[in-house]
Amino acid sequence: MFVNIGNKRANVNNIVSFVLLVGLSAAFILPLFWMITTSLKPIDQLLLDPPVWIPRPLEFDNYPKALEAQPFLQYLGNSLQIAVAAVIGAIVSNSLVAYGFSRVEWRGRDAVFVLVLSTLMLPYHVVMIPLFVSFSKIGWVNTWLPLIAPAWLGHPFFIFMLRQFMLGIPKELSEATRIDGGSEWILLTRVILPLCKPALATVALFQFIWSWNDFIGPLIYLNDRSLYPMSLGLALYHNSQGITDFSILMAASTMAVVPIIIIFFLMQRVFIQGISLTGLKG
Amino acid sequence: MLTPQNKRELRKIGVGLVFISPWIVGFLALNLYPIIASFYYSLTRYSPISSPRFIGLFNYEKLLYFDPLFIKALTNTLYFVVFAVPLGNMLALALAVLLNQKVKGLSVFRTIFYLPSILPLVATSIVWTWLLHPQYGAVSVIMAELGLPVISWFSDPQWAKPALIMMSMWGAGWMMLIYLAALQDVPQELYDVASLDGASLWRKFRHVTVPMISPIILFNTIVGLIGAFQYFTEAYIITEGGPGDSTLFYSLYLFQNAFAYFKMGYASAMAWLLFLVILILTFIIFRSSAKRVYYHGN
Question: Are B127 and A96 in contact (CB < 8 Å)?
């Protein structure tokens, strides 16, 4: 009897939760739904009052029109190149640094590691202006280098995550290789890194998203249109457009969003794992 | 003379430093030098065409006593922080608690709530401009259907900030994911014991869930706070600080000073004040929460 009442209550709770989740999901989907349907609206259905939810017929021409209005394909290509260069740098640098903070024992290591974590508190705005001044002095303004090079010097989030992962690998593995006369370098590349694949994949994905989504960096450093990534190209296009072009703007926005959605679905498991591991922000 | 043991120790330190050398270079070039340079610039008058000229604390005095736009930007940002951080946290926690009820379709719901938080802000900002359009936006249609008044959102000084806060809540999915992971670590036995004592759902949440995940609440609050103080892209794209400076946020005004008016010294002073505010608030939050945060194992 007691158990039955408990079950009934649990069921009611479950149904209430489910209904709430469906309602909230609808609210969360609405902006993306609105983006996609608007991107498929012919111009005569864009400014109807009340608006139509699903246009008839669907106007796929807005996509080629967007590609004509701005070199969006080039912007996408630029974003991709910047992101890939940053991802490679993030994998290389953070692996090395995390190894030094986890698999090598040296005096003062943990004190230095606290310093690594403390840099997370530093707002970007404090370093923004001196970095701009320095990068202009060495002639890096209007190149992708200020967007790529920092990724090659490690990031505290990634160092933390990889370090946690490497600390979980038994010490005996390292000892065995050292006894066989293997150097630290061989130990890192042949033994430790192959075991860190899930963590490395998470680093790659988050760095890709950060680079792809970055706006203030390109805004500060790039002047030449041919160098623009998608975020900056889209923003400047948005500023120059009136209300009648919203279907084309939505088509362009969809093009900026879809690569991230595809990557998310391909790598969903790694994503969830990564964020549970450390609480990284996209 | 070094003993063999000291030698070995030194060698190990050397190996460690070699491995962390990318971070050392990054720390010196991307953190330490810029922090010092920024503080120096904040004491100067500096535009990119001239070299910095020392003027003492003049920039700080001007900011605090003679720049109404600075005060406006600061209050706008505090408004945003005070509402967006707790509301985003509460929504994220509520979503995580709902998802933790072992409902069907967990991974679908999780994806729907998480995805917006990793999409490019430039694109989603443009989408929200259109979503909240007073005449043609989806939200206006729905509100009209429900018999609610039409709101001009981003073009109304009263509603522009709430609209941006609403949009920021849409991006709270990353916090939800962290909460969800934390909730799954709370031992089921604690709930079972509470059930035997006849505790209601709310009491279980209040006296089991919240204490057990309190370190995560603290973490999300602080990360959210630091992020909210640097809120920039949405305001830059959607409202450009308007209408009537109602969305002129701290970072936006700082950016304008640095890269539109080329007042690098003045902007650096703003950056340092921001840094101080964040440090002090974080410290206060840590201190005031110390008694309420429960770390298992300690």
Answer: no
Q: How confident is the prediction for chain A on average, in pLDDT?
A: 88
pLDDT tens-digit readout, A7-23? 666 677 788 889 999 99
Average pLDDT estimate for A261-270? 84
Expressed as residue numbers, the domain containing B228 is 68-289
Both tokens of B76, joined, read 């706008």
Which residue does chain B place closest to A136, by CA atoms?
A: B48
pLDDT digits (tens, 9 = 90+) for A216-230: 999 999 999 999 999
Q: What pLDDT is attached to residue A275?
A: 60
* Angle, helix A197-213 to helix A246-266, in steps of 10 degrees: 170
- Three-class DSSP category at A154: coil
Q: 0.95 cut: is pTM over it? A: no
CB contact under 8 A, B122 and A235: yes
Residue carrying the six token digits 């298992």: B296
Count the Cβ atoms, other than its own, within 10 Å of residue A93: 25
Provide, as residue numbers in chain B, all residues whose Cβ is less than 8 Å from the Cβ of A38. 130
Find chain A residues with C-beta within 8 A of B116's C-beta. Answer: 28, 31-32
* Partner-chain contact A28 B220, CB within 8 Å: no
Shortest distance, CA B158 to any CA of chain A (angstroms): 22
A216 and B233: CB-CB below 8 Å?
yes
For residue B43, being part of any structural domain is answered with: no
Question: Taking CB atoms and an 8 Å limit, are B35 and A46 in contact across chains?
Answer: no
Query: Which distant-in-sequence residues (6+ apart) come within 8 Å of B19 by Cβ?
Result: A96, A97, A99, A100, A101, A104, A184
CB A281 to CB B223 under 8 A?
yes
Is the residue at B178 inside a domain?
yes
**Reduced DSSP (H G I as helix, E B as strand, rest coil) percent helix, strand, coil of chain B, to 5:** 75, 0, 25
B 257-286: CB under 8 A from A:
258-259, 264, 267-268, 270-272, 274-275, 278-279, 282
- Using a CB-CB cut-off of 8 Å, the residues of chain A touching B270 are 125
**A230 and A78 Cβ atoms separated by less than 8 Å:** yes
pLDDT band at A51 (very low <50, low <70, confident <90, very high): confident
Q: Note whether residue B37 is domain-resident.
A: no
What is the second-level CATH architecture of the domain A65-278? Orthogonal Bundle (1.10)
Q: How many domains does chain B have?
A: 1
Q: Do strands B53-54 and B44-45 pair parallel, antiparallel, or not at all (unpaired)?
A: antiparallel
What CATH code is carried by the domain that includes residue B281?
Answer: 1.10.3720.10
If one compares B39 and A44, the residue with the highest pLDDT of the two is B39
pLDDT profile of chain B (298 residues), mean per 10: 83 93 97 97 91 94 96 97 97 94 87 95 95 90 88 93 97 92 89 88 90 92 94 95 94 96 96 95 89 68
